[in-house]
């Protein structure tokens, strides 16, 4: 598998590079991904984005495909980390991209010392409509990297009420986007906007990275 193409925002001289993988159904330059990449770059960080093989193929021929199997997704992540060597990295991303990054961060056999932290945007704690199928075991047992999870309070893949009952380690920090869904988008009746939730999340990420 060839190394994925990388899309950069921010200065190459930044002290830290944030690598973001996309969600299952949207490209690396979706409005959500653009907002976070550009917002973090404005905070003085370098941001690198990439696409998993199935999404790169969709970009090439326009055909929608299901996500690659987990081993291929993880191998793609490792290719990206190696391509960015020797820069210190923060890994993460939207939903699927963040979940795969969390598996790398929690794997003692493959964890890379250049990975300084993990940032997940809308973590899919369980599949849609299947709250009993939790994806938390590695978060509870093997995660060593400083971690921030940015989650909408009404995310259908892990609401605040659900997540607070999982007993996750206190070392995992959370930023809760008020009334946010899986993309942190609030309902109009809340009086908030997606742009406000995204901006507050970007500020929270920047503050987290400065603290670590």
Describe the model.
The protein is of the alpha/beta class. The protein has one domain (7-211): Rossmann fold, CATH 3.40.50.1820. The protein has seven helices and seven strands, in the order E-E-H-E-H-H-E-H-E-H-E-H-E-H. The radius of gyration is 16 Å and the shape is globular. The chain starts with 6 loop residues before the first strand and ends with a helix. The mean pLDDT is 95.
Report low-confidence residues grouped into runs of 5 or more: none
- The CATH architecture term is 3-Layer(aba) Sandwich
The residue-averaged pLDDT reads: 95
Global Rg: 16 Å
Strand order within the widest beta sheet? 1-3-2-4-5-6-7
Q: Using the alpha-carbon principal axes, give the shape.
A: globular
Q: How many structural domains in the coordinates? A: 1
Helix content: 25-40%
Largest sheet: 7 strands, mixed
What's the end-to-end separation, in Å? Answer: 34 Å
And the CATH topology?
Rossmann fold
